[in-house]
Amino acid sequence: MKRINKILSFVFCLPWTLYFNFKYLPREQALKLPIVLFKPSLLKTKGTVKITSKKIYFGMIQLGVKHVSIYPNNGFIFENKGGEIEFKGRCVIGSNSSISIGDKGKLIIGDDFLATSTLKIVCYHYVKICERVRFGWDCLVMDTGFHPLKSQLTGEFIGKAYGPIKLGKNNWFANGTLVLKNTETADFCIFGARSILSKKFDVEPYSLLVGSPPKVVKTGIYRDMDDCTEVYEAYEG
């Protein structure tokens, strides 16, 4: 039944999928329909979207697909005001999610990216996500605060309200993580639930960081993206 519902959802959204692929991609790529949209809300479709992968196939990029039963199946919000989005391979972003790109923003999403529900990406400057990254539910990636601050004494702006974000490969960001401007992470790192990231984390790979700001609490561990299914046992307390 789940597979049937997914097929029906795709058929219903086929017009938007066709429009999106043929608007943004070269014809030889667009014919394969590599980008599939589920219940999309296309606010602005300016700028560019490109796929830089040697292998192009149907449905390699799925935006808005329902994965999580307890979250609403309300699709995907897309807004590109003139910036650039680059997909380097397979990408799955679940329902109740959105991407907003400013006119000068550049978003790079590495191969084998997964966020099952409620991911918001706001990119008005620069966001790079390396390969094999995972996001839990209710996460936000935002490279700008939109509103720069001024000095009370001089009335001049203090610094910038935006900054680049660079996320290392095989990172896992647990539920409720907030990734802000000037964040940079090492490869093979895990950030605990409700983490707030806003700086460069100069830590060893295979580190677990928790708290806000996150601090290393354990090293020598990682999430195996190919083998991480929990096997539950009944409670007998």
Question: Any chance you could write out the topology, listing elements then pairs?
Answer:
Elements: H1 2-12, H2 14-24, H3 27-30, E1 35-37, E2 40-45, E3 48-51, E4 61-65, E5 76-80, E6 84-87, E7 91-94, E8 97-101, E9 106-109, E10 113-115, E11 119-123, E12 126-129, E13 134-135, E14 139-142, E15 149-150, E16 157-158, E17 165-167, E18 172-173, E19 178-179, E20 189-191, E21 196-197, E22 207-210, E23 215-219
Parallel strand pairs: 1-4, 2-5, 3-6, 4-7, 5-8, 6-9, 7-10, 8-11, 9-12, 10-13, 11-14, 12-17, 13-18, 14-19, 18-20, 19-21, 20-22
Antiparallel strand pairs: 15-16, 22-23
Distance between the termini: 36 Å
| Overall number of strands | 23
Low-confidence stretches: none
Q: With helices defined by DSSP (H or I, 4 residues minimum), what is the helix count?
A: 3
The major β-sheet equals: 9 strands, mixed
Shape: globular
Chain oligomer state: single chain
Indicate the proportion of strand residues.
35-45%
Average residue-wise pLDDT: 95
Q: What structural class do the secondary elements suggest? A: mainly beta
Which strand order do you get reading across the main beta sheet? 1-4-7-10-13-18-20-22-23
Calculate Rg over CA atoms: 19 Å
Into which percent range does the helicity of residues fall?
Answer: 10-25%
One letter per element, helices H and strands E, the order comes to HHHEEEEEEEEEEEEEEEEEEEEEEE
